[in-house]
Amino acid sequence: MRRHVLIIGEAPGMRTDPLLPLACGRSGKRLRELAGSLLDRAELVNLLNECPGNSAGLKGCKFPLHKAIRAAVQLLAFRKPEPTAIVALGWRVWQALGLVADCPYFTQRTVQVGMSGRRRVFVKAFPHPSGISHFWNEKENCEVAAWHLRESLS
User: Fold this and answer.
1) Over 70: is that where the pLDDT of 51 sits?
2) Using CA atoms, how far apart are residues 144 and 54, in angstroms rounded to an integer?
3) Which domains does the chain carry?
């Protein structure tokens, strides 16, 4: 059976054309740097099709988790071909997939996929690749992230 890896992001960036795929923005650039040509083996999708924007006067973004959960349920139930593995980009995606938001990076859990929900696939919790996180400031972290992403795609 051919491996089908699904990489799930949150939404297009504020300065990214929402019609462009996930691989075209700042996050896509980092993923390409980490995985190289292996990234071509994956299907990249966002849970939301538009950027939710920033919260007025507050740090962070006003990510509508309820919409993301609904999108994640539909994505996992109806995606063809069904993924054999998932890389979840950022804690908001982890939450939408039903994972604990504060699980350590690169933790693997399982989620149910398909209409029956009987098949389970591994989900790897991955730091959000946009570069906003301090995680990306350390070279060692980038090397570990590259190893985990390549391992997921191989």
Assistant:
1) no
2) 30
3) 5-153 (3.40.470.10)
Q: If we measure between CA atoms, which residue out of 75, 77, 102, 74 comes closest to residue 90?
A: 102
Question: Residue 1 — pLDDT band, cuts 50, 70, 90?
Answer: low
Q: Is the model's pTM score more than 0.85?
A: no
- Taking phi over 0 as left and psi of -120 to 50 as alpha, with beta for the rest, 78 belongs to alpha
Amino acid at 12: P
For residue 19, the model assigns a pLDDT of: 56
Of the two residues 113 and 76, the one the predictor is more confident about is 76
Nearest to 149 by CA among 9, 26, 38, 45: 38
Which residues 6+ apart lie within 8 Å of 102 measured at CB?
A: 91
